[in-house]
Amino acid sequence: MSQQASDLYEFGPFRIDTRNRLLFRDGKQIPLKPKVVETLLVLVENSGRVLEKDELIQKLWPDTFVEEGNLTQNIYVLRKALSDGSQSETYIETIPRRGYRFAGEVRKVTAGHTSPVAIAHPSARWLWLGGFLLAVALAGGFFWLSTRARSRSSTTPIKTLAILPFRPLTSGSGDDYIGQGMADALITKLSNSPQIAIRPTTAVLRYADANRDPLAAGRALDVEAVLDGKVQREGERVRITVQLLRVSDGASLWAEQYDEAFTDIFALQDSISAQAARSLTLQLTGSQTASMRKHYTENSKAYESYLQGHFFFNKRNAAGFKKAIEHFDKALSIDPNYALAYAGLADCYLRLNEFGVPMTQEAVPHARASVMKALAIDDTLAEAHATLAFIKFRHDWDFAGADSEFKRSLQLDANYSEAHQWYAFFLLAVGRANEADSEMKRAQESDPLSVSLNSNLALYLFFRHKFDESLQQCRKTLEMEPNFTLARITLGLNYEQKGSSKEAIAEFKKAQEMDPNDVATTAALGHALAKKGDTTEARRLLSELRDRAKMAYVPPYSIAILYAGLGEQSEAVDWLERGLQDRSLRPLWLRLDPRLDTLQRDDRFIQLMRKMGLN
Question: Do residues 562 and 527 lie in contact, with contact meaning Cβ atoms separated by under 8 Å?
Fold first, then answer.
């Protein structure tokens, strides 16, 4: 350091011994590591000047590469040491997106010497004293007001939080699944408190990029705070740095570092969630605290396989779902009582139905068996109850049972956005539109930036026959993700209903380019072409679908839609009855798809609706 070894620095009741790297308060030593005191010393030497983070790191660790988390941790420890219970950030200020500044008044003292005191004339002394006292009073009043304002702003409860996927410290290390898993686990634990709204996993996954700006992510997610972390796996150990940042000014509300064996990952998650809850000033009940500490397995190997499965599930494509099934199965081979892994399997099988896996023969039987095992082990899994509700609604047409399971799921987790969304579609299908609107609104409030939810809102508005609103929602979704196929198809459906056949066909062709194998897109395109009068091309597509159905599963509904477009009502109902037999018909589509309006008075169609319990 630049000062002589005999120099001391004082501020408020504190004194720094520069020679021995010690900090005293009112003459009593505060136990701190030398590097922490050295951090304070650099700040004090540059009192009043903003020190960039990179500059601080270079001064403190000139010959060593360290993560920014080391500096953040030192600042956290210093603020705690300098706090008198009312002004924890008075001395060290955070300058958002830049660094830190020491804001206290510093006195430099040479050990063994006292500064001379000037002797003034008595009358001048009284004038000086009066002015001094007035200045002290004014400064004290200003300090009290600013401290009080600062205290209010720093203790204002956080109402909205985003927990971002923890970033791997080493690019390409393969630790992504651990980082996403840590975030997902903490989201689940902290969502137990009704005092704070936490963005779901689906909303934060887009911010898994190692180069993201956590504060920018927080602003985009419209939250007051973000929990940002980094993770590194080295053999059987895992190193994590985590910090809680206030989005408005970038202030660090809490920071910590961990270096634990991977076998202690559950205790590590408990510790992080508990400290985060304290920093967020959450008042948790006994049951909420117990729920935060709940572990679905105690086997770290099973948990690691589950994390890998969850990572691939979030890819949201056929290859990802199949890979996820492998990892969930592996987790269950290690721990056969792992309820979450069974729930993950159920969701994978149901999602695969969207990619051509027959519902009756494969998707539903596997999903039902898995979800029932999950609930037999743990009846408090909101995800499993929502999945069971989905099966009862879409496959069993057991509407009373579906209603009960949806309510149970949302009772267990009121912030489960997908359950709110599925419940909204169910309520719309059974004719409870006002309740459906309320549930869809809750889904959007829970996860306003989810591309999937925004796309499904557009589809929901289509079924509500609010075509102009649905069009706007489609455009909003496509601004978020231009290649989201469902939003593109829904846009085409709306154009068709508004009489804009040319625009509808163009959108369906774009969707077809994105996913050439999607039979629903082919059916939608064929229907629009038939309505426009191009029956030759429509029949070619119909023939293509019927030929494909001989070799692979094609939902009968898709072929029925093409026949309806061609005006061949009897054949359309024939194929709908096939869908009734293999239980692939979707109640909502059958009841509210405007492309089937011409069938509404057909006696066979009316009977079909009754068999499904929709009339």
Answer: yes
Whether 133 shows a pLDDT value over 70: the answer reads no
Alpha carbons 16 and 18: distance in angstroms, whole number = 6
DSSP SS3 for 265: helix
10 Å Cβ neighbour count for 86?
11
For the chain, state the CA radius of gyration. 31
CA distance 62 to 384: 53
Neighbours of 195 (CB within 10 A): 14
For 24, counting Cβ atoms within 10 Å of its Cβ (0-12 exposed, 13-18 middle, 19+ buried), the class is middle
C-alpha–C-alpha distance, residues 81 and 346, integer Å: 50
Strand partners, 252: 245
The Cα–Cα gap between 282 and 194 comes to 9
Please name the amino acid found at residue 220: A
Q: Are 384 and 367 in contact (CB under 8 A)?
A: no
Q: Helix, strand or coil for residue 59?
A: helix
What is the DSSP pairing of strand 160-163 with strand 197-198?
Answer: parallel
Q: Token pair for residue 299?
A: 């086997």
Q: What is the pLDDT of residues 211-222, one digit of tens each?
A: 788 999 999 888
Cα of first residue to Cα of last residue in the chain, in angstroms, is 84
- The single residue listed with the structure tokens 């050295």 is 38
C-alpha dihedral over 249, 251, 253, 259, to 10 degrees? Answer: 130
- List, as one string, the DSSP characters of 306-322: HHHHHHHHTT-SHHHHH
Distance CA(121)–CA(182), nearest Å, equals 70
pLDDT digits (tens, 9 = 90+) for 394-406: 999 999 999 999 9
| C-alpha torsion sign, points 320, 321, 322, 325 | positive
CA 176 → CA 163, 167, 180, distances in Å? 15, 7, 6
Joined together, the tokens standing for residue 130 give 């009066």
> Which of the two residues, 473 and 146, has the higher pLDDT score?
473
Question: Cα–Cα distance between 131 and 137 in angstroms, integer?
Answer: 10
DSSP codes joined into one string, 140-162: HHHHHHHHHHHHHHHHSPP-EEE
**Interatomic CA distance for residues 291 and 276, integer angstroms:** 15
The total of other beta-carbon atoms located within 10 Å of residue 473's CB is 24
Q: Which residue has the tokens 């408990």?
A: 270
What CA dihedral angle connects 116, 121, 124 and 126, to 10 degrees? 80
Which amino acid, 365? P
Least confident of 10-24, 274-288, 396-410: 274-288
Scan for tokens 């066909």, then name that residue: 505
Q: Give the mean model confidence (pLDDT) for residues 571-592.
A: 92
**Residue entry with tokens 């399971």:** 405
Q: Pick the closest to residue 305 from 354, 265, 353, 350 (CA basis).
A: 265
Q: What is the pTM of this model?
A: 0.69
